[in-house]
Specification:
Chains A, B, C, D: Keywords: Iron, Oxidoreductase. The structure is a homotetramer. Chain A is α+β, with helices and mostly antiparallel strands. Chain A folds into 2 domains: 160 residues, Four Helix Bundle (Hemerythrin (Met), subunit A), CATH 1.20.120; 252 residues, paralog of FGE (formylglycine-generating enzyme) (Alpha-Beta Complex), CATH 3.90.1580. Chain A has 10 helices and 11 strands. In chain A, the strands form 4 sheets. Chain A has a 4-stranded mixed sheet with strand order 10-9-8-11. A 3-stranded antiparallel sheet of chain A has the order 5-6-7, with no helix packed on it. A two-stranded antiparallel ribbon of chain A has the order 1-4. In chain A, helix 1 packs parallel to helix 5 and helix 2 runs parallel beside helix 4. Chain A starts with 16 loop residues before the first helix and ends in a 5-residue tail after the last strand. The N terminus of chain A is likely disordered. Chains in contact: A-B, A-C, B-D, C-D. Chains A and C meet through strand 3, helix 8 and strand 8 of A and strand 3, helix 8 and strand 8 of C.
């Protein structure tokens, strides 16, 4: 999701398309509503895009792939926007260097919002006559909605990073009761749940939409294994830190250890040590670390080192998917972008030791599987072929969605992917053995 | 002025201090009035500071050097601002890395403007009782005004650079009649005016304020020389370009030639070649290059290469100052920040071949003199000692002020200085031989 | 092998240990015999180590892991050598920064050769009384021999790179008849050979030595597939080049495309276009590209792009190993370091269309499998635990050995690994579908 | 001298040309005689060139400017050498990137020595018939000799740097009695000697050779000043270090302070603190710092900071030259490259408090004067015009020669120049006030 999105959707005409389009679009602007115009411009590191850019790029996507193709007589909002808001599609021409997104104060936020309105009106007009539209239009419509939801998650994580860079530790939202309350009691110890192995089918096998990287479904041989029944908590992780985990190279991948030393890592991203203990930067500013909540904002290197220290390991993506099927994981009851009034944070797990918690929602779970094409995968033709295929090397798969993922955006077969060093997403750790 | 400011001012109590303070302060905010909040945040290159930062840093200067010292019971506006808005004073503690100024969306523009109001009110209260203030207060008051004027010039040039980075070529101000009119006729050919040499006294010798780098006044031996009676024009410079000036290493300093190749320079900063010829980015967006106007936004390397190509050379700063005295240069009639409703651009020279034009105003003139301390110079004690002295190596002196300099900020003895590669100031070329 | 080596060897006492030790050690110095002292010092890129360093580092390995542990009264040759010639073992203290290996002219080559003699004498003395040595000694002895062979391959490839940087294109060896003769006829077209799938056992399952990364043997599910019966040739690859393969982003991984543009890649490493066509730098200087020989010195990105262009794909490592078992691949008849008088180059395949050629030897074959731990893998305790485990992320597996691999160093289960951008090894392409 | 050399020499035919040529050429190879071939290849930092390169580049100079022009039928030794051994002459085509000189193991040292012999023989043949040669030939001959002497100084300093990078601290030469003996008694305190000012003539005014940067001689106005009668010693400098000189930003230029922090400077280059106190790396390996000897291997930033701490300043180059004339400085008795059997190090000054010591020899003395063209300077035509003129910005002048300068290479008017951060030359400090 550092980039990427792809389609594999049966076209369909449903009475709710317009309502769904508008709901998704509104969620993007709602995420930016608490921001000042100043916040929407900056890019404090290369992985982060300015919120103004996200609002415009998602709009460019609708304009480029749907309106220019299917809306007769559509007038592009501004001829330069294709250059300004293309993300990475070589098929669609040159574009602003990714590292320079944060130098562009113009177009202004107001212009970008006007761009959104312009495009939304044109889409609404099209959707008023759905029977005149071909099936491929609805495939692209579905893709556009999924794409916009992916950028909603990035908006949530990029906004957090942007605000974190100020020494003022500004709050995105005023503090809520819920956010500041620590768990009354420590979370229960993790238990190990057995998962039977065998020849397991992985990949998308349902009706409906999925990205192309979830296809084709195929069999893999999985040996029986055990999985922990919840995510690793801050208390668990603090034990690793206090045991010298960040000072002992034996737990670390070589490239992770080099990075740790170069960057001076001693804790997850956003953690700050103060007199009273450890704090972390949140959407409400600095708050005390909650021992019961899942640890988040860790790189693969940290997740892997923690697992080594704990005498366990990370699951493979096939194991994760097999377990999620085995435990009948569903989005219900998980922690999602909508769970907490746009204030994403992972929450402590339920105490039931026999159930498997938090598989969907809360934190993306690092797996020890490289993000490669499934056997038989092929890239789509045209610009959409650039979405997923070209990223299928040098990254790792994450599974399960997070507290910043829109709830109806997730699936058990969903494959997210990031480089091993990334920490600004809501990434977490689940152990296997 | 890439940094720097210093004091050498007889203290005095004048009825107009408050009015002058308010006039200077108002000019800073007036310069930012045409901007959107988005424009005030970004830092597209390290030399440029966000306008919001300029507005805050100048305010921090008043708070730090005057209010904290002389206003009993003064409450600092925010305890973190000293860290956020210190520019380069090691004496005053750590600060935001210069390259990271553009990542800080907070404090917001509105907060910075409130900071300005807070400080202005406290200053006004102090100035209501001038007889209770010591002489040193007025020295610092003068320095603060000069400092704020220096940042006004930087505001003008930084705003230009910021807006230039957008492919939309946004206009800072709507186009005025004046800006878009090309000179009716070509400017007259430059003439050579003789300047007698001898033992000349340079440095500040008047009453009133000057920076410490203009002191002490001292004698230098200057051989008789000739100076051109006007700045090099765009037409002159185009001849150099068309003669292959950017492709022939023989005209260039070695480090300049390497830079030209690495950066792909083929024209001054802001120039763009289009179907109809050369255009340049201005405060009004893209406008055609006016052949009669002085060439500007050239580095020392380009100024020097042009001079070599023209069979001439750049003057030394002693020559420049001697000539300015000889020709009785005064600010009147020059082109200044106030000349054109905050729309800075150098203008064509008067046609009189016997007079020396544009010595003050229009463009800072590169000299072939390193920015070194004058004989007998000594740094001031305390934090103010960091203003000028620590920059006195590896830079070159520029003289005369520019169309972005406040008119009452200039003097014949004024020494500005930049590294040889800098182009975003209104720098120009005058030939000597 | 960019680093790394590990042990899993039944200890044994054989009459031939000393002879084998001496044969291996002699091969290392023989590889350096054609070099001048000057050639043994330089490091023209970070992946390449100076030959002098290889000679010393392999010696340090014997001294550190065997002599210091098992030779009573052994005197280290020089106390600083542990710092100078440790490669990457954090367990064994600080060391010369890898990028700085090429700045050290001292110790001189003669000193390094004396170091080798000193250590060889001590080892020979130990091996004179094998019955006094414990089983673990022989495990380490085997590991040391394997380690030294790995560095022999690096010596061959690093020497090639070092000599290639001189515009004189110096020859490591005088030209031989064999090297310069082009294949009389074009190589036969590649054929597709079917490989049955099923649950296949991969990993080391024999008697004898293997590295820890080949363990444990385990089952994987492999779908039936087809494999080409020979490596991709220079003629094949030229067709890709001539079809615009290096100019069409659609064939490339995103990171590969960015690299191609940044580096200006238009052909494999060492290829030079001259009037008469394509040449390549070899151990004999510049020679014409032989259309019938396997293409080599390609990155994973190039191998993958070629496969995409050809409508095929790279095999996974499980597929490769399954095929190698299926076709009973053996080292006999392959092209190895010893095949051609220390003059490594891959040779054209036999013409039989029904056999599978070149699986072992000639070129390391890029697979589309990340270099990860096998299920159940665990790192060894102590310094030797750093050899393989810490590299198991962000690299890709290569299989089969090359013309620079010592013949008795290879196995079907052998896992080599490099980052996707590396080209200076003898890497090649085999297609699957 | 970081580059550069130029001519202003009356042609003359003298019986000793051949002998002088051979003496100079022999000195270059003599400097390399103690080296191993390995030492002649490496380039541990960009300012340092491999000794092999120096030996070849000086030879290329003779071939290019003399033999190709004046020796009928001369055959170049190798057609690629012009590319390999051109230093920075754009007029003469492309060349090896300066930073890559240390990656070229070939041509071998033996080939370079053969190149020298080839060129020397051709030169000797030419010089056998001096009456057939034009005056311009002898101008270039003189220039070639001066050029080679400049590279002898660089050979001495580059060799020192190269050997210093090995933790073995290898000695270039076996230790001599002289080198290791500390001064019996502390050196006498420095005294201040008055120098009268006035209109002083600077620049070369003698018969014979000088570089073009010493011309034209011209008048400058110098105010009366005082100069210390000797160089600053290690004992003096240790007092600065012990007083916290490297930890107090107030003494430092801003760019120097930033560099100090980035590089972690706490002492001059080559100094190492050990149990017994401070040591420095020398041509004999590590030796204790001699308190009485002049401090050397300091940057301009350190020299300037020391002067600020001491309440003094560095002289300008006009002051230095005026003083050298006033005190009748001569090379006799100074410490030069030949003084100590090619083992350069500055020596303690004579104790006479009324004389001015060490003006010529021992250490190059940093001045506070930018390296700019003298008034009226013009670049020569052709390739030789690139020698000096293109470096005349952003560097500082040093005066007086050092213990690594050939004795007959120096003049009072000689202008050496380096960037303010350079430390690997034998640079030192003399105070003025």
């Amino acid at each position: 999701m550092s980039s990427t999105l792809e389609i594999q959707s049966p076209p369909r005409i449903a009475p709710s398309w317009l309502a769904r389009y508008q709901a998704v679009r509104t969620q993007s602007t709602a995420l930016c509503a608490p921001l000042l115009p100043e916040d929407t411009v900056v890019q404090p590191m290369i992985d982060v895009s300015p919120p103004k850019w996200h609002l415009a790029h998602t709009t460019w996507f609708w304009e480029t792939f749907l309106l220019r193709e299917y809306a007769p007589g559509y007038q592009v909002f501004h001829p330069e926007y294709a250059f300004l808001f293309n993300s990475y599609y070589n098929s669609l021409g040159s574009r602003v260097n990714r590292a320079d997104r944060g130098t562009l104060s113009r177009p202004a936020l107001a212009d970008v919002l006007a761009y959104r309105n312009h495009v939304d009106a044109a889409l609404a007009a099209l959707l008023a006559k759905p029977h005149e539209l071909p099936a491929t239009f609805f495939e692209l419509l579905e893709l556009g909605l999924q794409h916009e939801q992916q950028h909603q998650e990035l908006l949530a994580t990029d906004i957090k990073y942007i605000l974190s860079t100020s020494p003022l530790a500004p709050a995105y939202l005023p503090i809520s009761e819920k956010a500041n309350v620590q768990a009354a009691a420590p979370v229960a110890s993790a238990t190990w749940l057995p998962v039977p192995g065998g020849i397991c089918r992985v990949g998308f096998q349902e009706e409906g939409f999925c990205f192309d990287n979830e296809l084709p479904a195929h069999d893999v041989l999985v040996a029986p294994f055990e999985l922990q029944n919840r995510l690793v908590t801050n208390a668990d992780y603090l034990a690793f830190m206090e045991a010298g985990g960040y000072r002992d190279f034996r737990f670390w991948m070589g490239e992770g250890w080099d990075l740790l030393q170069a960057e001076g890592w001693t804790a997850p991203l956003y953690w700050v040590q103060k007199a009273g203990g450890w704090y972390r930067f949140t959407h409400h500013g600095l708050l005390a670390v909650d021992p019961a909540a899942p640890v988040t904002h860790v790189s693969f290197y940290e997740a892997d080192a923690y697992a080594n220290w704990a005498g366990a390991r990370l699951p493979t993506e096939a194991e994760w998917e097999t377990a999620a099927c085995h435990f009948n994981a569903t989005p219900e009851g998980g922690t999602w972008l909508e769970s907490n009034a746009l204030d994403p944070q992972p929450l402590p797990a339920d105490a039931d030791p026999s159930a498997c918690h938090q598989l969907l929602g809360d934190c993306w779970e690092w797996t020890y599987s490289a993000y490669h094409a499934y056997p038989g995968y092929s890239r789509a033709a045209g610009a959409l072929g650039e979405y997923n295929g070209k990223f299928m090397v040098n990254q790792l798969v994450l599974r399960g969605g997070s507290c910043a993922t829109p709830e109806n955006h997730i699936r058990i077969s969903y494959r997210n992917f990031f480089h091993a060093d990334k920490r600004w997403q809501f990434t977490g750790i689940r152990l296997a053995r």
